[in-house]
Amino acid sequence: MSTPIFSLTDIHFEYLNGPKVLSGLNFSLHAHERIGIIGPNGTGKTTMAHILMGLVKPSKGRIHFHGEPVSAERDFLPLRQSIGLLFQNAEDQLIYPTVLEDVAFGPLNMGKSSQEAKEIALRVLSELGLEGFDNRITHRLSGGEKKLVSLAAVLAMDPEALFLDEPTNALDAKTRAHLVEILNSLNKALVIISHDWDFLAQTTESIYSMKDGKITLDGDTQTHQHVHAHSHGSTPHVHGDS
Ligand SMILES: Nc1ncnc2c1ncn2[C@@H]1O[C@H](COP(=O)(O)OP(=O)(O)OP(=O)(O)O)[C@@H](O)[C@H]1O
């Protein structure tokens, strides 16, 4: 099989004075894969996303990006530009006073001129149906609007993969349906953490469950439920669940 975009191998993690969260987690994402992750509250799904992005350090384990080991802070910079993390809380993503500044931040940070960054931001906002939002005050947006603006900020960096942490939180049915359309129109590898099984069935091809600090991709039916939704929107078919 081809080299994955990223892989997490035998990741262990526990918070200081907190629970042991991950114990031997393995996970990888290849180009064009669309994977959903489902699992009870507090099983470590968000922690896994933060470990991948270098926001918290695992106590043990290896991270690879296109086959290269990632450990020092500088190694994470290209990874963070290529894998767009949509934070569970939009407030963690949106830090500027206006929507335009928030969405233009990524391209500016990647070396685009302010004019180019502005054009990219306006184009992405328009693609997400957010025309006219550029001068809105970010902290006054509704929860659903913040979520879409966060997604715009991630897409403005044109990442090769998206890692979305509970993207349907705060979305009404219409916006949720809009998000399904947006995600299905993107030609990008993606991982979506969600409690919303129907949403995952509509947007991903495989759904894995996280349990006991692990996701095992190959055949461990004790900890791993592998589901193929043969086409987006079809009823998921469960494999390997004993
Ligand atoms: N900074 C922290 N310090 C101590 N414990 C933490 C910290 N952040 C998270 N935890 C704990 O670690 C565990 C895993 O949290 P995490 O947010 O990764 O779970 P999750 O699977 O994403 O949950 P949910 O589905 O509720 O979003 C939880 O028990 C949580 O309370």
UniProtKB/TrEMBL annotation:
SMART domains: AAA. GO terms for molecular function: ATP binding; ATP hydrolysis activity; ATPase-coupled transmembrane transporter activity. One of its GO terms (cellular component) is ATP-binding cassette (ABC) transporter complex. SUPFAM superfamilies: P-loop containing nucleoside triphosphate hydrolases. Keywords: ATP-binding, Nucleotide-binding, Transport. PANTHER family: ENERGY-COUPLING FACTOR TRANSPORTER ATP-BINDING PROTEIN ECFA1, HEAVY METAL TRANSPORTER. This is Cobalt/nickel transport system ATP-binding protein. It comes from Desulfobaculum bizertense DSM 18034.
